[in-house]
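Would you be willing to look carefully at the protein I have copied below?

:::
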Amino acid sequence: MARKNKRRSRRSKTSGDHDSIQPVVTKGMEGGKYQPLSDHEIEQIHQTTLDVLENIGMANPLPQLKEVALEQGCNFTDQGRLCFP
């Protein structure tokens, strides 16, 4: 019986302290503001990606993709790569 009384007294001591507890996570930066790359850098990445797809191409394309891409003007190299003009 003494154990239950000790637990109750500990609970009652700590239960009233909730107002003084500080939040673990505090406010940080406002959402949508973090931009690790500039617009110019994003455009460079995009242009380089298009260049790679045009000049190096894609290896081992799925047969369905290859068929549709060839119909749309892509070409298939001797090395077995699908290139996008």
In short: The CA atoms of residues 47 and 69 lie 20 Å apart. The radius of gyration is 31 Å. The chain has three helices and three strands.
